[in-house]
Amino acid sequence: MSPYRYFILSIGLLFCFLQSQAQTQAIKGHIYDSQTRAPLAGVMIFNDLKEQLTKSDANGYFVINGYQEFIQAVLVGYKTQNIKIKPEDGDLNVQLDADGVSLNEVRVAGYNSNKTSKETAGAIALITAKDINRGSAVSFQSALNAIPGVRMEQSTLSEARISIRGNGVRASYGIRNVKIYVNEIPVTEADGTTRIEALDVNSIGRAEVIKGPASSIYGAGTGGVINFQLQRSPYQEQSLEASGLIGANGLHRLATTYRSGGDKLNSYVSYGWQEYDGYREHSNDMRRFLTGNFQLFPSDKRIITLLVNRTTQHSQIPGSLTADQVAANPLQANATNLDKAAGRYQTWTRIGLGQQYRFNDLFSNTTSVFTYFYDLNHPLPYAYIRNFYQSYGGRTRFSYDPGFSVFPTRFTVGAEFNEGLTKGTQYVNNKGVEGAINSNVDYQNTQYSLFYQSETALTSQTTLTLGLSYNSLKYDVNDYLKQNQSGVKKFNPQATPRIALSHTFSSALSLHASVSSGFSPPSSSEIKNVDGSINPRLQAEKGINYELNAKGNLLKSRFEYDLALFKMDMKGELIGQSIQQGITIYNNAGKTSHNGVELALSYQLLKPEDQNEVLSLRPFVAVTYSDFKFKDYKTLNAQNDVTANYDGNKLTGIAPWVFNAGIDLETKMGLYFYGSYYYTDRLPLNDANSAYNPSYQVANAKIGYKKQILKCLETNVYAGLDNILNKSYSSIVSLNAVGFGGAAPAYFNPSPKRNGYGGLNVKYLF
């Protein structure tokens, strides 16, 4: 044989050998929820002939014997993931995205159970990026208001208030009584206050909302918990996207996003600029967002996450108006706010590092550490505030399944620590310029909680959950100008238990019963007496919640329902008494009852992937009934004398009936339409129930066309109209406002009337 022929034969034999090796190579890997990083069990793996090859185990692990160029991962509640396999690929780390339709089937991180929403005891709701993008995606308002029992009030972009089942509605600024996390890193400050303006709405991939006390595993907060998850890149996608938005009242937004979803590294980086002239006078808002979210898979046992976020906000605050002022000109700003150039000029920076480590199939740990700081320039009608805030902390939890053959149980223990230092200076406000200094105070707030939870399978369909947390909070106040007002406020430690029982009859019905307790301490700004000294008698509000839930899927999982009945009793509620403008004192003088019913329904009328239909059609409805009343509610003066008794009155700021409905229509050719309708009953504006915010209704619609026009190019063009009916209303109101000097109370913050927007997203796929 000639050398030439020998060489050709050798090459051929080598090629055949390599091909045979590839064909016998095993494909293995893990499958995770793309947002929570939780392993997904029961994911079915198919080949290109639609033959099932295997299924992922309880740890999300799968093995396929033999080489496949293409596999498909399928799990109800998640988008089907098509996966291209290369011979050189190592272990796969497949990530599935929630489909935004079958949300009852999505695994939730709440209560650390890694069960579907339908199987989890308690009221847990999900919103996805799809829900947020039903509108212009400059606010969470429409997405959160579609959840029964949740209310987000916002008339301008400078201010938002979120309440859950009435808890948090009385916050005079920011968000209170609701614990908020991003990627399980606390956004809520150590004293319980939260501002979400630092979050880029477009960078949120999912949010889980726990309604009712979750103190047994999340610490302080009687209202509940919102855990935002930043977007992660779709699996096996590498892309660069540019997006632009314009709208009424000078709305502009430009953003650039880079995505890379690999098996070893998932990267999401976004930079955005947004400006809004505002519907009213003196309501301009400017934002700069930079968000980085990285996920590394160094081994099959470890996942490392890194979060970097920096946001700048420059916002003017138009202030509240009286009813007569709204009738005369709803576009005007409050005269005092205008004269004092009221606004918020703030820059936030947040850095978080986390790790999930699986020691073995029975024992795992999740730990995160973070630092968070901001600087604030805040001219207000009564003062000019300059603050610098810095905090650091961490959260860790261990999960262990000892493998009991009788009553299998999984145990979770963990801890959370958060310490924040606020260096605050207050000046006289001379028309938007600092005048004489009148306050210089440091607050060092330290909060920690220890928590325990066990989940025991009494039968294959019945689960008992027991939880308990121990919580401590301390405020260390140092007043440099008035040393006699310095001191330490240490709250009584709180133990908050939870017990829940769940039984799954079938996919059509899961029943849940739970009793949980919670607490919410006053913020550092609420602990002062009228003379500025620390109030030693002030303690945390406490609540106990009794709840029944029914969840399920009917009609071949097309119809989903989620029903909740609850009774929550609050005691020691903080009652604010306005002494003069900018000065409010608080006392534990209130008891309230929160009784309600919440119902969420959705129906997938048409499903293209199942019936070869040309479109997908999904209507949905959310209904909330709230019977919230004062039981023992009195206001006290500085001498603790009763000045008013409101027993039996309706709870301030709560609408008895709230109704939300919508429809999603999507076609295979790329056209889509989202429509929504929101109605809220009238609500009392003060504790005396002598003034009311009228009922109102808002209809919104969005239409668009999304298409991959080239192999490497995807476009999304859209336009929308908000407040189609052109209604006059105030979404956010100033509760218990007081008119000084004989003036009428300024309750109202008028919301925009009919307004439109349009945008274009262009994505280049590498």
Question: How does this structure look, described?
Answer:
The protein is mainly beta and 766 residues long. The chain is built from 7 helices and 44 strands. It has a 22-stranded antiparallel β-barrel. A hairpin with a 4-residue loop joins strand 26 (433-457) and strand 27 (462-479). The longest helix is centred in the N-terminal third of the chain and has 22 residues, at 3-24. The protein is globular. The two termini are 48 Å apart.
Main beta-sheet strand count, sense and barrel state: 22 strands, antiparallel, barrel
By DSSP (H or I, 4+ residues per run), the number of helices equals 7
Shape: globular
User: How many beta-strand runs?
Assistant: 44
Radius of gyration, Cα only, in angstroms? 27 Å
* Amount of beta strand: over 45%
Mean pLDDT: 87
First-to-last CA distance: 48 Å
Percentage of residues in helical conformation: under 10%
Oligomeric state of shown chains: single chain
Residue stretches low in confidence (pLDDT < 50, at least 5 long) are: none
Structural class based on helices, strands and sheet pairing: mainly beta
Keywords:
766 residues; mainly beta; 44 strands; 6% helix
Short overview:
By secondary structure, the protein is mainly beta.
List the helices and strands and how they pair.
Layout: H1 3-24, E1 27-33, E2 44-46, E3 52-55, E4 61-64, E5 70-74, E6 81-84, E7 92-96, E8 107-108, E9 115-116, E10 123-128, H2 129-132, H3 141-144, E11 150-153, E12 161-164, E13 178-182, E14 185-186, E15 204-211, H4 215-218, E16 224-230, E17 238-247, E18 251-261, E19 265-276, E20 285-299, E21 302-316, H5 323-328, H6 335-339, E22 343-358, E23 363-379, E24 384-400, E25 409-430, E26 433-457, E27 462-479, E28 487-490, E29 494-506, E30 509-520, E31 541-554, E32 559-580, E33 583-603, H7 608-611, E34 615-636, E35 642-645, E36 657-667, E37 671-680, E38 683-684, E39 692-693, E40 696-710, E41 713-722, E42 730-733, E43 748-750, E44 755-765
Parallel strand pairs: 1-7, 13-16
Antiparallel strand pairs: 1-4, 2-3, 2-5, 5-6, 8-9, 10-15, 11-12, 13-14, 15-16, 17-18, 17-44, 18-19, 19-20, 20-21, 21-22, 22-23, 23-24, 24-25, 25-26, 26-27, 27-28, 27-29, 29-30, 30-31, 31-32, 32-33, 33-34, 34-35, 34-36, 36-37, 37-40, 38-39, 40-41, 41-44, 42-43
